[in-house]
Amino acid sequence: MDDFLTKSFKNFKKLERNGEVLTYFEIPEIRDCRVLMTSGLSEHKMKVHPKHEGEEFIELFMFLPSYWDESELIESKNDWVFTCLSRAKKHVISNSTWFGHGHTFSLNIDGASMFNDKEQTDYIISNPIELEGLLKPMEWNNRVIRFLAIIPIYKNEMDYKEARGTFKMFEKFSQYRVTEKMDGYRESVMKSRWSRLFKR
């Protein structure tokens, strides 16, 4: 697994935070593309729904904001990124559950908030969008490993997803060109057309 990432991408390294090891790398095909990913989650076989057989092995990743460089990633104010990936991994393993495209979750991270903005309170799991062609499912040790993104979302986006479903939520994302690339400055896709038009 690490061999694949090392050969495919650049500046590959392991980062440790609070006893959890995560994988960091950069994708040269896309400008300012930096990824932080779980390490070792794909060694765990998830108990997926029967409709999702063949999707038992994953690694979770976060496509970091383009305006972050590596030095900003390790600043204490951005600990929530490490915490999110670590807790998501532990949740899957400890609770014998699974994550797939469209699943959502919340985290109560003491003393930390996403992008210092408490309005983005939840997360949604997504198949790669912008990185679809670069993080394809791969065969390794007789298993197919899929890469799934974690995207921070607003409470009203979470409410919309729960009411209308995964397809409608990602249809909204597509309409406003929201991908797995994190952006602390993006607005909720649920804002009205008028509020966008008269944005200050």
Q: Which key features would you list for this structure?
A:
single chain; 200 residues; alpha+beta; 8-stranded mixed β-sheet; 6 helices; 24% strand
Descriptive report:
With 200 residues, the protein is of the alpha+beta class. The chain has one domain. Helices cover 26% and strands 24% of the residues. The protein has 6 helices and 8 strands. Strands 1, 2, 3, 4, 5, 6, 7 and 8 form an 8-stranded mixed sheet that branches. Helix 4 crosses helix 5. The longest helix is centred in the middle third of the chain and has 16 residues.
Element order, helices and strands?
HEEEEHHEEEEHHH
Low-confidence parts, pLDDT < 50 over ≥5 residues? none
Radius of gyration: 17 Å
Number of domain modules: 1
Q: Alpha-carbon distance between the termini?
A: 46 Å
What is the tally of beta strands?
A: 8
Helix content: 25-40%
- What structural class do the secondary elements suggest? alpha+beta
Oligomer: single chain
Task: Look at the structure and give the mean pLDDT.
Answer: 88
Short description:
With 200 residues, the chain is an alpha+beta fold. It is built from six helices and eight strands; from the N terminus they run αββββααββββααα. It has one domain (2-197).
